[in-house]
């Protein structure tokens, strides 16, 4: 190690710390390690070292104050195999291609809805489909995962593909299954093992191979959509992200800014993966927590009835009159901790952090769990407490350490869309239904950790609040 390199637990030759990482909840294990080795420490997997950064203050120092030093993503053998070829999409690209593609994606999100308000309408329409699908359950207990996944992905489908899918559509179901598998495996111990021992893992059977088959199948579905777009592309009237990209590809032929079809497939894959799993799982955690704490569900519904009523869909403007609901949604995001570890970074130059020197090219992982549960920033970090976001007069307050979307130059580019979706889906669901379950004691809050955190499967009852005719027998 170079002088002043961050400390870390003793490592075995060849294997490093691989056997001490707690495979089921690595984010908790890594958060606890910071209590022993400090907020900047190093873990070794094989010969590969990763510097973990913990706690709000140190993560802010790295991602915001020294943002320029931690803007790139490092090399990963697994990503290289998934993305095969020279393109890296949105999440894993670097330099001028990343800057150009990120700007392009954000501008396209704005064009297809965010600024014009049509996205608000799309989300409310999708909520109605979701409500209808829940009503069709007719009182039986059901697992909400499939319906929430479908509703949320339909929003990104409309932006990227220009269309939504019926919830029973087999193509949509297959894509969602592939997405879920990918999101789990990409953040699992299998992905760490693959990056630490690529030559060995390449030849071994095991769950890691699922990442490659899921990504191949997703890319094939996206290619089909692109072919469909090419048939009836009207350059004067782009309908969605794919149209916009194909038009830009024609203009950018000679410039190397990532406007090639291979990269379009990967950008769509990234938007899908980043844009549907995360929001859908946050809503699943929302149902779970509000069923677990029925008095909070009651207070949310009182506020919805007062601010929106029962006869019109909510709008984003209603948020300012709903501080309690807003606080509850923020607390769901905090406790749900959907992206427990942030996207990997690479130090652009030798950088001093917390007294240690992180050498140029080192892999760095900001630990978002350690920020959202930082004992110095949250009054009751381990319990569900909407008061974290309310002042003594019940007014909503922002918290600096609320970083579910990360921070700095590489922070989530879909934050605006995600917040709009969370608010509108959440309010329309609780406006229409009272949610319950058979046995609250069975609701588990630990979750299954991959690249995102998913609740263990749970079943719910949805009882209509409008006509006071219970839609379910048992709730
Ligand atoms: C609750 C919902 C969401 C959460 C919690 C979330 C969280 C995150 C986090 C933590 C990152 C990593 C940032 C970093 O490396 O510093 C990220 C990146 C990203 N997110 Fe999201 N996200 C959400 C929704 C969305 C949506 C709806 C979209 C799509 C429109 C999206 C698109 C992306 C993309 C493309 C990146 C990569 C950005 C880059 O590397 O420049 N996300 N997100």
Automatic annotation (TrEMBL):
Primary location class: membrane
Cofactor(s) recorded in Swiss-Prot or TrEMBL: heme
GO biological-process terms attached to the record: organic acid metabolic process; xenobiotic metabolic process
Subcellular location: Membrane
UniProt binding sites for heme: 412
GO cellular component: cytoplasm; membrane
SUPFAM superfamilies: Cytochrome P450
Keyword tags: Heme, Iron, Membrane, Metal-binding, Monooxygenase, Oxidoreductase, Signal
Database matches in Pfam families: p450 (PF00067)
Gene Ontology molecular function terms on file: heme binding; iron ion binding; oxidoreductase activity, acting on paired donors, with incorporation or reduction of molecular oxygen, reduced flavin or flavoprotein as one donor, and incorporation of one atom of oxygen
Superkingdom as given in the UniProt entry: Eukaryota
Family the UniProt entry places it in: Belongs to the cytochrome P450 family.
Name this protein carries in UniProt: Cytochrome P450, family 2, subfamily N, polypeptide 13
Protein source organism: Fundulus heteroclitus
Lineage: Eukaryota, Metazoa, Chordata, Craniata, Vertebrata
């Amino acid at each position: 190690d170079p002088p002043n390199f961050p400390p870390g637990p003793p490592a075995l030759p060849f294997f490093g710390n691989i056997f001490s990482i707690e495979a089921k909840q690595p984010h908790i294990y890594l958060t606890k390690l910071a209590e022993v080795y400090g907020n900047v420490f190093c873990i070794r997997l094989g010969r590969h070292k990763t510097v973990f950064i913990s706690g709000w203050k140190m993560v802010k120092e790295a991602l915001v104050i020294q943002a320029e030093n931690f803007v790139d993503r490092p090399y990963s053998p697994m990503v290289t195999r998934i993305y095969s070829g020279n393109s890296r999409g949105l999440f894993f690209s670097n330099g001028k291609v990343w800057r150009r593609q990120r700007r392009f994606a954000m501008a396209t999100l704005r064009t297809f809805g965010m600024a014009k308000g049509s996205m608000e309408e799309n989300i409310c329409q999708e909520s109605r489909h979701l409500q209808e699908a829940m009503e069709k359950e007719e009182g039986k207990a059901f697992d909400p995962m499939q319906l929430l996944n479908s509703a949320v992905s339909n929003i990104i489908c409309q932006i990227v593909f220009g269309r939504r899918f019926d919830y029973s559509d087999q193509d949509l179901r297959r894509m969602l299954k592939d997405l879920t598998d990918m999101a789990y495996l990409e953040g699992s111990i299998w992905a760490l093992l693959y990056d630490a021992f690529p030559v060995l893992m390449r030849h071994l059977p095991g769950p890691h191979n699922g990442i490659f088959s899921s990504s191949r199948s997703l890319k094939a579905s996206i290619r089909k959509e692109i072919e469909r777009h090419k048939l009836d592309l009207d350059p004067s009237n782009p309908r969605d992200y794919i149209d916009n990209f194909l038009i830009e590809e024609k203009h950018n032929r000679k410039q190397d800014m990532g406007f090639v079809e291979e990269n379009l497939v990967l950008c769509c894959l990234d938007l899908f993966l980043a844009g549907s799993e995360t929001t859908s799982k946050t809503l699943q955690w929302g149902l779970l927590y509000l069923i677990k704490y029925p008095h909070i569900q009651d207070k949310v519904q009182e506020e919805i009835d007062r601010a929106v009523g029962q006869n019109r869909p909510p709008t984003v403007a209603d948020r300012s009159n709903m501080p309690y609901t807003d606080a509850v949604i923020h607390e769901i995001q905090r406790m749900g901790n959907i992206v427990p570890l942030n996207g990997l970074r690479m130090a652009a130059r030798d950088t001093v952090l917390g007294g240690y020197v992180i050498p140029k090219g080192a892999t760095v992982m900001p630990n978002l769990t350690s920020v959202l549960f930082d004992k110095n920033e949250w009054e009751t970090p381990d319990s569900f407490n909407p008061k974290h976001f309310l002042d003594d007069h019940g007014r909503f307050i922002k918290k600096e350490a609320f970083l579910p979307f990360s921070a700095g130059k590489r922070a989530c580019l879909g934050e605006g869309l995600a917040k709009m979706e969370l608010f509108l889906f959440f309010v329309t669901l609780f406006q229409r239904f009272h949610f319950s379950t058979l046995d609250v004691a069975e609701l588990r809050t630990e979750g299954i950790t991959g690249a995102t955190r998913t609740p263990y499967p749970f079943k719910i009852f949805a009882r209509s609040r409008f006509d006071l005719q219970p839609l379910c027998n048992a709730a």
